[in-house]
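Q: Structure tokens for this one, please.
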Amino acid sequence: MNTGSVWFTLVTCAFFMGLVAWVSYKKTKGGNNDSRGYFLAGRGLTGTFIAGSLLLTNLSAEQLIGLNGQAYRTNMSNMAWEVTSAFAIIIMAIYLLPKYLGGSFTTLPEFLSKRFDEGVRQYTVILFMLGYILVTIPSMLYSGGIAVLQLFDIPALLGLGYVESLWVVIWIIGIIGAIYAIFGGLKAVAVSDTLNGIGLMFIGILVPVLGLIALGGGSMIDGMKEIATTDSEKLNAIGSSEDSVPFGTIFTGMIFANLFYWASNQYVIQRTLGAKNLAEGQKGVIFSGFYKLLIPFFMMIPGIVVYHQHGDSLQSVDLAYPTLITSVLPTYMSGFFLAVLLGAVFSSFNSLLNSASTMFALDIYKTRINKHADDRKLIKMSQIFGTFLAIIALFVSPLLMYAPDGLWDLIRRFTGFFNIPIIAIVLVGVLSKYIPAIAAKVVIIFHVITYYMLVWGTDHLFGFTVDIHFIHIYAILFFIEVFMMIVIGMIKPREVPYQYKANPEVDMVPWKYALATSIFLLSLVVATYIAFSPIGLAYTNGIVSDYFWPANIGLAVLTALLIFMSIKFWNKKYAGYLERSMVVKTTRKRKLGKRLSPSFTKYQRVEAEQ
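A: Here is the predicted structure, written as tokens:
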């Protein structure tokens, strides 16, 4: 790319990014004067902004680089991380979101403090912080950095080596992204995410289309035929035991990993906690599930196109997507692409900073350091901590260049340190009344030590490996830890059973199409797996097998029947269940005689603040 093209790209990129920043500023002006406005967007987010923010928070350069790299290296089996998250999304929307909004929680650790105690709150905050600082935030910055390096050939432009250039780019991206989160608050993050999300969807669709056209010599149809009939096993999402995501893991540890991400990961659920009402929150969460189904098409197909173009000649699997971008994207689109790419990086980065700062201010500073801190002080401390966290991440991020098996696999392994114990504690906390705080603390310590030993420790310390896939280890440890908490609860139960107290600040009427839309979403998950399977596009003796259409027709009939049942019968029961859960139950005794002392139960409806 010559100097003139670089300047054109930079100027157009700055224009698009400036436009997003201006709209975000106008939408959030004057809305961050108190802690509720800064941390939860004033509890006024609609389903559109929630879905848009969830989309771009989740779909970052990490996915663009990592998933395309894995598709280039193996096949479509890694799409399981994205597509099967629909199960967790539905559980979040239908069951857990009403619990969170009904209790008016600001952070997940706040919920755990009410269910267990302040100690559990601090333990989970520490787990989140370590995961964010050492794994999640660095991966966002690193993936964005290598994409920019490949797109512009920064080493040649600056006259620096690859390593030095990567450090420079990561620091520039990190500093700009931190400004959004530290000074904008959650609403600025949500608005900018939605606008960048629209751009990401456009680019996400355009790049594979252009790639297929290039592969087909000017014909998209010929390109599609090429990947469907030549090396068609690359389109197989039914992973074998040799793949990084064997198909069986979908039904074990992946369920809990996705459930953690969508139902208990602070930087994801914080958007839903800012919903203006339950219906809008459910819309936002469920709609994000439909976006996830597009992942195989615009975050994995490009990697397969690159494989057909270059074979296995690339120096690193993480270079697959940047390689395609440089070869097929027109120069006049490069500035827009860079703006969208950086927007995706900023989205995940500033979302993580915003959530980490929120937890520090509300779960550590407010509870441990200054219990009488006012809103102004909380916001200031949040901004200071966010700056400190950003600086640490900037030093850690470039070190990911030494990951041997690609960025994606490394991240998934390291998140195992904190995802499983947190979701285990959350689910046990929601579903039980007598399990004490000590059970949660024991499980956290047990998990960190045991997970390290099973995945790396035995090899590092004793020279042998545990031949169990790390996703299966997720599930094994989840069930062991739940069992441990149950046993501790039986030995030393809480003296006073936990009672969920509804105190909603928003309207809690559910979205009337929540169940029907959830059923349709699950149906599309199955249809996606049918498409990318040996009876679908991965069929080796043609484009699809004879079983492909009967399977889809049967699925469509079953889906229609279940949707009808949900509208006709299940909606009313679900709404009634939620209404009962918003009722506070108190028990008092009235003596009627020496032996008669019955308990009278009084129900009081808790109305949402209007």
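A few notes: Residues 3-25+40-405 form a domain with the Sodium/glucose cotransporter fold (CATH 1.20.1730.10). The chain has two domains: 3-25+40-405, 512-583.
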